User: Fold this.
Amino acid sequence: MKTASVSSLLTENPIDPRWKTLFYIAALAAVYMIILIPIQGIVFIVSPPPSTVLGFFELFQESTLMGLINLDLLLTIDYVLVLFIYFVLFIVLSRREKSLSLIATILGCLSITLYIVSREATFSMIALSNEYFGASTEMERAATLAAGKTLLAVYNGSAFSTSYVLGGFAMLLFSIAMLRDELFENSIPITGLVTSVLMFVPPTVGEVGVWISMVSLVPSLIWMILMSRWLFRTAKSLTQ
Assistant:
């Protein structure tokens, strides 16, 4: 801690202990993401996603699971789970930084919403893949390919890029608020600041963006590890 233990700081500026269940859920969500983030990174390196619609169709015929992972199934789960962490951060940080924590939470929720909207292709590609290989005419296959191209355009479109950058801004504001709160070790907001800066360059801007997004997984993973420890420790303090 910066100056004192969690228990003593909570005595000075308490958190309603009725939130402890949410703290534990957020902590477990962080642990789950700690597992998922490396898996997603390894899959991307070992088995990069196809560059064409037909490539995705063929991949889904070979392995539905690999097709889903290559279309960000694991990251979609991550985005949903991080919502619990955002809510906990708002509860804690609003004790001192009401405006900053509220803006960060709003931006985070918008980021998650836009991301989920942009991932329409994740499950829709399964049906299109089956339809393509079950088509009896070239016209039907061409129509299916066109539908797949539309899904991939949305997948890599402005909704995703906006979501990515908004997530960076949310992390930036949360980190600034955490630096001002003695309840957090400095390592947590500093790692968050590094992550937020890297998130200002979405992977859709080109090869540089893709590699920056891969690099950002390192501080993101460290942040999750630090946050999971903090969440469990703080939740335990709320039960005392």
The mean pLDDT is 88. The first helix runs from residue 6 to 12. DSSP finds eleven helices and no strands in the chain. The radius of gyration is 20 Å.
